[in-house]
Write a structure and sequence with these properties.
Two copies of one chain form a homodimer. Chain A is of the alpha/beta class. The first copy, chain A, has two domains: 7-60, 2,3-Dihydroxybiphenyl 1,2-Dioxygenase, domain 1; 74-126, 2,3-Dihydroxybiphenyl 1,2-Dioxygenase, domain 1, CATH 3.10.180.10. Helix content of chain A is 22%, strand content 33%. Chain A has three helices and eight strands, in the order βαββαββαβββ. Chain A has helices spanning 15-24, 53-60, 81-93, and strands spanning 7-12, 39-42, 47-52, 66-68, 72-78, 97-104, 110-115, 121-126. In chain A, the strands form two sheets. A four-stranded mixed β-sheet of chain A has the order 5-8-7-6, with helices on one face. In chain A, strand 2 (39-42) and strand 3 (47-52) form a beta hairpin. The first copy, chain A, is globular and about 40 Å long. At the A-B interface, strand 1, helix 2, strand 4, strand 5 and helix 3 of A face strand 1, helix 2, strand 4, strand 5 and helix 3 of B. Strand 1 (7-12) of chain A pairs antiparallel with strand 5 of chain B, so a sheet runs across the interface.
Chain lengths: 140, 140
């Protein structure tokens, strides 16, 4: 089994509102394969998919019952402390909820957290120990 | 904000057991930057990180309280129905819990679901509408 993945699917409560959030706050564009049932965003080599949580549970044949912290986070790394600050400022102006303002992190980097309108965590980080290529792919 | 992400972090209950699961059942190797507090796996251009759920919540300054369905799934796509079946057979032999056996999917592909030892969903899928390059990156 190759060391890779193809799609991350976030189960959502309100597909339309969540799609609009990623389009307007993050400025991302959906793939044309998106429709009223599902939204796809092509990221670096993988897809981020937004799909109703009920439908995701139904598809996987698991219970959709769940509440509280969903226990995962996505990180968007940039190349400097300044870029972290600028991105936070930009997201703040777009009305994105700041969960933790950017600050020095115990692991030697600089980061903070925002979330989308349904509480999914995004860490915005500068990690001096992690190298990214021009496409934003991790090269380490 | 570029259309990409850097790290997916799964908050785990038992870091050692979860790391062993991904190493033995999936056959993946951790990065040397992994330690007793965190495990990193380099996937195609992104990292998958395993980190104690309590510590993740603490870092993001959110409550760690949460139960039930965590509302997300990861997908590992392959290039044929046969490859899906072979991978399920291999994972089953390795003791991986099969959540939904592979079958024709309503969206025109062929897929099923397994989960890791803490219930995080992995869909194993063949999607005839999605093209992957040699590295497993989505090219659409």
């Amino acid at each position: 089994m190759d060391q890779r993945l193809t799609i991350i699917t976030i189960g959502v409560e309100d597909l339309k509102a969540m799609t609009t959030f990623y389009e307007t706050a993050f400025g991302w564009k959906t793939l044309s394969s998106s429709n009223e049932q599902i939204s796809f965003f092509k990221l670096n080599g993988i897809l981020l998919s937004l799909y109703p949580k009920e439908d995701l549970a139904l598809d996987a044949e698991v219970s959709s019952e769940g509440s509280g912290f969903n226990g995962f986070a996505m990180a968007f790394n940039v190349n400097s402390i300044q870029e972290v600050n600028e991105l936070f400022e930009d997201l703040k102006q777009k009305g994105v909820q700041i969960i933790k303002p950017p600050q020095n992190a115990f692991w030697g980097g600089y980061s903070g957290y925002v979330c989308d309108i349904e509480g999914n965590l995004w860490e915005i980080a500068y990690n001096p120990f992690l190298n990214l290529d021009e496409s934003g792919n991790v090269t380490d």
